Amino acid sequence: MASAAETSTGHSEKERIVTSAIQEISHIATLPEITIKIIELVEDPTSTAQDLHHIISNDPALCSRILKVVNSSFYGLPGQIGNINRAIVLLGLNAVKNIAIAASLAKLFRGGELTPTFCARDLWRHSIVTATAAKLIADQAGMGLADEAFLGGLMHDIGIMVEMQVSRQKLIEVIERVGIGTDGVPRADMLQIEEEVFGATHQDFGLGLCERWKFPRTFRCVAGYHHRPLELDAANRAIVCVVHIADLISTTLDMGFRGDVLDATVNPAILEEIALGQVGLDQVIEQLPEQVDTVSAVFT
Ligand SMILES: [Fe+2]
Ligand SMILES: [Fe+2]
Asked: pTM to 2 decimals?
């Protein structure tokens, strides 16, 4: 996979900008200790459900959040699941890990209102819509990667939060130059303007942050390539294509920030990548509002 340095305009100056930005904000933007432990544990092939249960049971708030997610209609499990062990048995280690990460991500999207058309909560709202759409797409395409897709959607624009931490003033300049209307629709290409103002885009910063956090490769690819999935090699492409499409169709709902999507037309070649036809996509768009309500109730 390409590193943060090998992006569209790829040169060492960009690498320097991204590296120093990530260093600068690392004292602010950290994942909770427990989330890091969970990621490490699930990446370790020798770990067991019991190990995960042991870590999670030390955090009652996380326990109750996980049970709330598990029991929501989003997972559609029969009956009420009353404890974490049962949740792990039913959903698997990987799903519970993803829920734990998701539960901790919300805390990073803070910082108040920057301009009348941008605040961190709007970006989080957009992330929830994209995550929900990504899960629906993965389900619809029969890919069996719904939890990865969901988490990918939740963190795809995390690079914008990096920009906000690095320089609120520069992000305000970007948003103002993008010229977002009251309908949320941008008038100019945000990525181009980010290049001009920051010297790198939110894809570059997102990839840098995910590398720093040692996130699994899938999520690094999502953060770094969600606007250009076909630039990735085929082995790393599937979830990124899913999140890319989810990001575009999130614009069908009038919810959250969408200032980095200038053209919401889905490229047929990308639909083909994940074997999803227009009919499947239309079904996802139809289910989206109700599912977003369910997910919002859990994650906000
Ligand atoms: Fe984006
Ligand atoms: Fe987005």
From this structure: 0.87
